[in-house]
Fold:
Amino acid sequence: MGHLTQDELKAYQGKNVFFIGLDSDGCIFDSMEIKHKECFCPQYINHFDLQAISKYAREVWDFVNLYSRTRGCNRFLALQHALDWLSDRDEVKARNVAPMKLQSLRDWSERESKLGNPALKAEIDVNPDPDLKRVYEWSLDVNVTVKKIVRNVPPFPFVRESLEMMQDKADVIVVSQTPSEALIREWEENRIDSYVSMICGQEQGTKTEHLNLTAGGKYESGHVLMVGDAPGDLKAARANDALFFPVNPGHEEASWELFYNEALHRFFEGTYAGDYEKELIKTFEKMLPENPPWK
Structure:
């Protein structure tokens, strides 16, 4: 599977009456903790000169990317959230450290939806801004570190069984904000890539765009389901009138067991929408706070 264009996503025509979009990191694979704690965060401290406040930088990074409503958001947005929370901390102010603002990154990410390295590189080619160059170097180093460190991370229990159950009944694609190269590597390494017909990463746009382009107007109401572990997945589902199944952070095994034994059957039988989905989402929304513990 190579890199896809948005036109290819739009041209997608499934062969089944049901459609399922799957997030990858933290949803299919237990890879969020290792990626953020061992790969993203050390490079963030290094590239943005946060050594003097590394303890707080780490706490903020983990909150933004793992333990709050912004869990699973795009890396370039996560960077902005993390720097904002950090600038706001009394402990940081007390040490006279002023985290970078990265205004050019903010401007770029407001007008660009394909928030990945190729789009950032294209921007730098026409606008060689030093902040954008720094962010690009950070992002490249993150990818190198992920490639070096993240391996032998299998899918959660009941994922493979669920994927098998989807075959012949649903068209299945990956909907993620991870770079395509890493996604393809992880799905192939675990030999589960054959269960999906498309792998969409950050280079193909937002999750909302992925669902809209591949499934929008192509399936009946109640026949599209997004499976994810972050509020952004729920938001993408809602923006496309899709149903949502939450994989609860910290309770992933139980979520997948429930999905395999009950929720997936209900989706195919047409009894998933309504109170059943509402209760699952209510539990999910309690898992991730909006405000950090240091507030």
